[in-house]
Amino acid sequence: MPSNKSVSDAPITQFINCRILRDHRLQRDDLWVREGKILNPEKLFFDEEGFADLQVDCGDGILAPGFIDVQINGGYGVDFSQAADDISGGMALVAKKILEHGVTSFCPTLVTSPPHIYHKVRATDRVLVSVQVLPQVSVDDGGPGGAGVLGVHLEGPFISREKRGAHPERYLCSLAGGGLKDLLEVYGSLDNVAIVTLAPEIPGSLEVVRQLKERGITVSLGHSVADLSQAEQAVQHGATFITHLFNAMLPFHHRDPGIVGLLTSDQVPENRTIFYGMIADGIHTNPAALRIAHRAHPAGLVLVTDAITAMGLPPGRHTLGQQDIEIEGLHAYVAGTKTLSGSIATMDMCVRHFQQASGCSLEAALEAASLHPAQLLGISHRKGTLNYGTDADFVLLDDELSVRATYIAGHQVWRK
User: Fold this and answer.
1) Quick one: which of 14, 277, 304, 362 is 20 to 30 A from 219 by CA?
2) How is the cofactor bound (predicted)?
3) What is the CA radius of gyration of the chain?
């Protein structure tokens, strides 16, 4: 029979024989879960006189918060930036597949695209009605069907032509209209949007940063030729993230370090953390640069895959939005060039590579894929940790940080 009838009829699961990542260290303890939340065992024992209905032996594995990928363009043949009749079906496929890599939540990312990709206009009784494509992807917490969706990451088109990378130049936009008007004309709506990446040197960007922040949308700086002063102004207006540090921005220079300088800037407002994405796939960033960033500002490092359609598929030609992409080994290039265009890495691969390349602790590597992205999005009160009362989204790993099982709301959704 279910325990604790005075509080809840829901059964309690006790995860035993494990090391739990909590308070920045691995602790040998049990994890208790009820109704999708992590329980405080002291309250359970002493206030409710409760007990476990089910025990799960973790085989001396590591229990860490589920990984959160805030920049993923697609995978397994699905391109989030491609118009499709079944957008939600493609999203569901990726959400299901990334469970095996420990990802329990993600932000599907759209690269610079023509307006009709974000929204389309159709005639209904001779009246033009804007039909938003993105809301077909609903924000949810995930479950057996796949990882949860935290909101869309819109990367472009308000970015620099010089540092556009794999973003097609013909679809880049200015902010000449002022304020959010330009964004709404391109995107159609900001519903279900979690992150917007833009270049802070574009005229009008600072007001947009402020307005996005007021709406609770995370603003990221990227694909930019901004100097440090421009980047600092954007942060003072509310920007909190840097899109794939070192990539698609001016290189570090000792007289003006550019956006990279935000990692050690003294102009960042008090009680504000600057986070920065790192594609730790062994391709996008030299291990020495990875170590420099981590040692300069470890609390802000957020691992992202920046994965594209080709993730999980054989080498060959694929797409990223409006561009053709060629996979050569572990490299993804814009077809016919040597311009990198996302990665084919999975999140667990990035965690392992980051830990090995940086020499950081297992705890730090795991938090870069869980706690830090949750803090970035302002959801660490419910995700990204294994604190009492938070969502029971977690991953079971071995000492080599290979995923053995993934759980959402305390239920196993994938096992090796």
Assistant:
1) 362
2) Binds 1 divalent metal cation per subunit.
3) 22
Which two structure tokens, joined as six digits, stand for 126?
């001779």
Class of the 12-64+400-415 domain?
mainly beta
Per-residue pLDDT tens for 101-115?
Answer: 999 999 999 998 887
Residues acting as catalytic residues:
306
User: What phi and psi values does residue 301 have, to the nearest 5 degrees?
Assistant: -75, 125
Distance CA 236, CA 127 (A): 42
Place of tokens 């574009």: 202
Summarize pLDDT for 42-98 with one digit per residue, the tens.
887 777 767 888 999 999 999 999 999 999 999 998 988 876 666 778 889 999 999
Question: What phi, psi does 186 have (nearest 5°)?
Answer: -80, -50
Q: Is 159 helix (H, G, I), strand (E, B) or coil?
A: coil
191 C-beta neighbours (distance < 10 Å), count: 12
pLDDT for the residue 129: 40
Grouping H, G, I as helix, E, B as strand and the rest as coil, residue 41 is: helix
Q: What is the pLDDT of residue 341?
A: 73
Per the annotation, binding residues are 155, 166, 223, 244, 247-248, 255, 284, 340-342
Q: Which two tokens mark 51?
A: 């007990």
Reported for 352-360, long-range contacts at CB under 8 A and 24+ positions apart, including other chains, are 352/400, 352/401, 352/402, 353/280, 353/281, 353/282, 354/278, 354/280, 354/290, 354/294, 354/303, 355/401, 357/280, 357/282, 357/287, 357/290, 357/291, 358/287, 358/290, 358/291, 358/294, 359/291, 360/294, 360/298
Cα torsion 67, 17, 20, 148 to 10°: value is 30
Task: Give CA–CA dist 309/303, Å, rounded.
Answer: 19
CA distance 364 to 399: 14
Residue with tokens 């895959």: 305
Domain ranges of the chain: 12-64+400-415, 66-384
How far are the Cα atoms of 4, 44, 100, 397 from residue 47, in angstroms, in the given order? 10, 6, 37, 32
Binding residues for Zn(2+): 155, 223, 244
CA distances from residue 67 to 22, 312, 330, 348, 373 in whole angstroms, order as listed: 15, 18, 22, 8, 9
CATH topology assigned to domain 66-384: TIM Barrel (3.20.20)
What's the residue count for the chain? 416
Instruction: List residues bridging with 157 in a β-sheet.
Output: none
Entry pTM: 0.93
Classify 259 as helix, strand or coil.
Answer: helix
Two tokens, residue 379: 């959801």
* Cα–Cα distance for residue pair 350/345, rounded to 1 Å: 7
Query: Which ranges of the chain have pLDDT less than 70?
Result: 1-7, 49, 83-86, 120-137
